[in-house]
Amino acid sequence: MNRFIVHCLRQIMIYVIATIQLLEGKREAFLEEFRKIVPQVRAEKGCLEYGPTIDVKTTIAAQGPIRDNVVVIIEKWEDIPSLQAHLNAPHVLEYRGKVKDWVVSSSLQILQPA
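RE: above sequence
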């Protein structure tokens, strides 16, 4: 594959790491609501991957402390316009309204292949 095509492909696809800190004891309720929208999000134009993750306890020394009140959403999108459309999709806005009182903070890290 020529370099120009590879460069263009790398500019298109993005990864998103969304870290959500929740009130103590609200993670399961949050995940229950989150899982309801997963099929709709995965059907969105440009969605390549979308799912919740939580910390797993291991004996690996480099791992940080387990965060019992954090959910990390791992996403992969074809491009930034697809992500922007997702962030404003009606089902996402409705979901945010349902969980907003459980969320302490949230952050997005948007990445591209290097």
